[in-house]
Amino acid sequence: MEADKLSFDGIDLRSADEKTLRRIRGKRVGFILQDPKYSLNPVMTIGQQIAEAWREHKGGSHRAALAAATDLLEQVRIREPQQVAARYPHEVSGGMGQRAMIAMMLAPDPELLIADEPTSALDATVQADILKLIDDLVSQRGMGLILISHDLPLVSHFCDRVAVMYAGRVVEMLAAKDLQLAQHPYTRGMLACLPSLKHPRERLPVMKRDEAWRNG
Fold first, then answer.
1. In the chain, what are the domain boundaries?
2. What pLDDT digit, counting tens, does each position of 36-62 carry?
3. pLDDT > 70 in the chain, percent
4. Considering the entire predicted model, what is its pTM?
5. In 105-134, which positions are buried (b, 16+ CB within 10 angstroms) versus exposed (e)?
6. 89 HSE (CA, 13 A, CB side)
7. What span, in angstroms and rounded, lies between the C-alpha atoms of 98 and 161?
8. Three-state SS for 130?
9. Using alpha carbons only, what angle is made at residue 87 by residues 82 and 90, rounded to the nearest 5 degrees?
10. Rounded to an integer, what distance in angstroms lies between the CA atom of residue 170 and that of residue 158?
11. Tell me, what DSSP letter sits at residue 13?
12. CA torsion through residues 29, 32, 33, 34, sign
């Protein structure tokens, strides 16, 4: 995958040096990974991990960072945040682990949040809660959000614009509200594969891919 232009707030990320990128990664741009089971450090408590992210970007004492970690856990709507801060990742549920990941990413007050399939490892009942939480936090903090997902209904509900990618290339870009009007055969194929309670079918169609899609 290649880009002719890749900039953030006027900074060309392709040519930026490591010092510049370190000021952006985590601090100005947060990244929520797919599965907290593999993303959280198993030998550190949840509070220690959030406090580490806080001190890395904001400095301060260890005690102040732990207090900030507890406050962040409360912001992501975790009950009894002090107790959860003292637990290790394997001692919490997947949904609680994902909330802890979100708290860690929010510690430096980023301007942009990138969420890569943030609910793929969670069951359906927890997914809605996590997505609502992310949506609320983005609105409250005035952050930008890039949501990466194969779930088109989810994308159309939580995003303003949609960029559809195939083989590392953007093949179509349109407003989320116009997603059903998409023209590219790959987008149309994904939409056609979605089951519907209103229009049930015995078999869902299988997408037939075209080699020409790789060339845009």
1. 163-216
2. 888 899 999 999 999 999 998 888 899
3. 99
4. 0.83
5. bbbbebbbbbbebbbebbeeebbeebbebb
6. 20
7. 25
8. helix
9. 145
10. 19
11. T
12. negative
